[in-house]
Amino acid sequence: MALCSRVAGAPGAKLAKQQSVAPRRISGPRAVARPATVDKITGIIVQPAVQFSEVQSELATVDKTNQNIQSLARVDFHPACEAAINEQINIEYNVSYLYHALWAYFDRDNVALPGLAAFFKAGSEEEREHAELLMEYQNRRGGRVVLGAISMPDLDLSASEKGDALYAMELALSLEKLNFQKLRGLHAVADEHGDASMADFVEGELLVEQVEAVKKVSEYVSQLRRVGKGLGVYQFDKQLGAEVAAGAAA
């Protein structure tokens, strides 16, 4: 009995036992898979954050993507979000087009209110920049930009009993408030489909600025209602032109 025990425990026997075990071969995807581990402090079993099977599944999706007609960058981007962004792009372009028409009106020689002309020209450019910002985001998320028709503005500011300056600024206020409501709707679509990236984009890049625009134009409407249609509009126009120039220089 003792002899057997000594033989089994001899160095040669241990070496023979080690040589009899075939080396384990690891190849292919299993080489990067991580097994579950036990946290030494809490004793909780910790699973890998990403199983390699998940990576393989996503790789299969990428492999089947036809880049001629599909975006490789698209991930968790709901079609409703894509459609809502395209709708907002159209809204921004329509507002820009209307502001451009107001710029052309106040720039006429028989109207001659250069401050209002500069204000609406800057507004037109800003709304177009918003449209382009949305287009860039659409492309960044793997969506496809689809441009809609732009409505032709039908304006007759000279016929307004309020005066052309006040009528134009009240129109601008209604557009800014409408745009704020549309942006809220865009944010709601992002929330509905759990798109945190899109919600953050709308909040940080568009909504904050839109709130400030509504407040600013509201103040202009209040001021124009006080000054009437004569000399007061001329003084308001000079002040507005100076503000636009200062904003452009900043």
From TrEMBL:
Residues 75-228 form the Ferritin-like diiron domain. One of its GO terms (molecular function) is ferric iron binding. Its main location: plastid. Keywords: Chloroplast, Iron, Iron storage, Metal-binding, Oxidoreductase, Plastid. It catalyses: 4 Fe(2+) + O2 + 4 H(+) = 4 Fe(3+) + 2 H2O. It is found in: Plastid, Chloroplast. One of its GO terms (cellular component) is chloroplast. One of its GO terms (biological process) is intracellular iron ion homeostasis. Fe cation binds at residues 92, 127, 130, 176, 210. Pfam families: Ferritin. Its EC number is 1.16.3.1. InterPro entries: Ferritin (IPR001519), Ferritin-like (IPR012347), Ferritin-like_diiron (IPR009040), Ferritin-like_SF (IPR009078), Ferritin_DPS_dom (IPR008331). It is an enzyme of class 1 (oxidoreductase). It comes from the Eukaryota. Oligomer of 24 subunits. There are two types of subunits: L (light) chain and H (heavy) chain. The major chain can be light or heavy, depending on the species and tissue type. The functional molecule forms a roughly spherical shell with a diameter of 12 nm and contains a central cavity into which the insoluble mineral iron core is deposited. Belongs to the ferritin family. Stores iron in a soluble, non-toxic, readily available form. Important for iron homeostasis. Iron is taken up in the ferrous form and deposited as ferric hydroxides after oxidation. This is Ferritin. It comes from Chlamydomonas incerta.
